[in-house]
Amino acid sequence: MKIGERGQVTIPKELRDRYGLDGSCEVDFVEVGGELVLRKVAVPVDAPVRRWMGFLGGEPENVDQFIEEIRGR
User: Fold this and answer.
1) Which pLDDT value is given to residue 30?
2) Phi, psi (degrees; rounded to nearest 5) at 56
3) How far apart are CA 7 and CA 29, in angstroms?
4) 8 Å CB contact between 41 and 20
5) How far is residue 73's CA from residue 60's CA, in Å, rounded to a whole number?
6) How many angstroms separate the Cα of 4 from the Cα of each of 8, 10, 11, 25, 66?
7) Which of 18, 26, 33, 65 could form a disulfide linkage to 41, CB 3.0–4.6 angstroms apart?
8) Residues 30/39, Cβ–Cβ less than 8 Å
């Protein structure tokens, strides 16, 4: 396997299928015992929600009061 001009490598389809690597997953390179190892990054179950946390400027200090305010009470 060769490294391309931009530092890219192609993971063979057989290995991508075996380890569930597709365009939506993230991988990381780590050094283990003097070797470079490719690892699939574990994504937390709540990752889709975490991505949007803080999007509206943080969490309200008092959730009950916030709900009453947005309801207009």
Assistant:
1) 92
2) -100, 20
3) 13
4) no
5) 16
6) 5, 9, 12, 21, 53
7) 26
8) yes
User: What is the predicted pLDDT for the residue at 72?
Assistant: 84
Query: Nearest 5°: phi and psi at 10?
Result: -105, 125
Q: Residue 25 has what pLDDT?
A: 84
Euclidean distance between CA atoms 59 and 56, whole angstroms:
8
Q: Which residues of 26-46 are buried (b: 16+ CB within 10 A; e: fewer)?
A: eeeeeeeeeeeeeeeeeeeee
| pLDDT above 70 for 68 | yes
31, containing H or E segment: strand 27-32
Q: What residue spans of the chain are helical by DSSP H? A: 13-19, 47-50, 63-70
